[in-house]
Amino acid sequence: MDNYVNLIKLSVGSESVEALMAWQNVYRRQFADGQPRHITRMWPKREKELVNGGSIYWVIKGEVQCRQKILRLDAHTGEDGIRRCAIVLGNEIFRTTSAPRRPFQGWRYLTKEDAPLDLTADKKADSILPASLAKALSDIGIL
């Protein structure tokens, strides 16, 4: 699975990774399979690469903070009758090293080389730090 690409997306309205998790736990009940989804207007042109091991990296409060595996892309028709793309995600959310990102609209492709690394088991214990402190430590290369 070396031939894959990721997406990066703002988690609008989320104040923390825990808030994203809570929102997904409520929202996923709308679907028979219980998998979380992100519904988007545009269908990614690089679908085969996304479902070949890609993840969606979530930007929360200006920082990439976590990711979820992309399982598949499903067609989804909204109440307005417009066909959209449902990016079906894995249930597990993996915390990543913090990486600053400026606001942008929609989603962008993110190569595996440019993707933030997952936090190791020892660093996960440290993830209780306030986001501002974690960012400051990350900025100077400590975290």
Brief descriptors of the model:
globular; 143 residues; 7-stranded mixed beta sheet; alpha+beta
Provide a short characterization of the protein structure:
The protein has 143 residues and is an alpha+beta fold. Helix content is 20%, strand content 34%. A hairpin with a 5-residue loop joins strand 4 (63-77) and strand 5.
Summed over residues and divided by their number, the pLDDT gives a mean of 88
Q: Stretches where pLDDT falls below 50 for ≥5 residues? A: none
SSE class: alpha+beta
How many helices in DSSP terms? 4
Helix content: 10-25%
How would you characterize the overall build of this protein?
This protein has 143 residues and is an alpha+beta fold. It has helices at 17-27, 47-50, 121-125, 131-139, and strands at 6-10, 37-40, 55-60, 63-77, 83-89, 94-100, 107-110. Strands 1, 2, 3, 4, 5, 6 and 7 form a seven-stranded mixed sheet that branches. Strand 4 (63-77) and strand 5 form a beta hairpin. The two termini are 29 Å apart. The mean pLDDT is 88.
List the helices and strands and how they pair.
Blueprint: E1 6-10, H1 17-27, E2 37-40, H2 47-50, E3 55-60, E4 63-77, E5 83-89, E6 94-100, E7 107-110, H3 121-125, H4 131-139
Parallel strand pairs: 1-3
Antiparallel strand pairs: 1-7, 2-5, 3-4, 4-5, 4-6
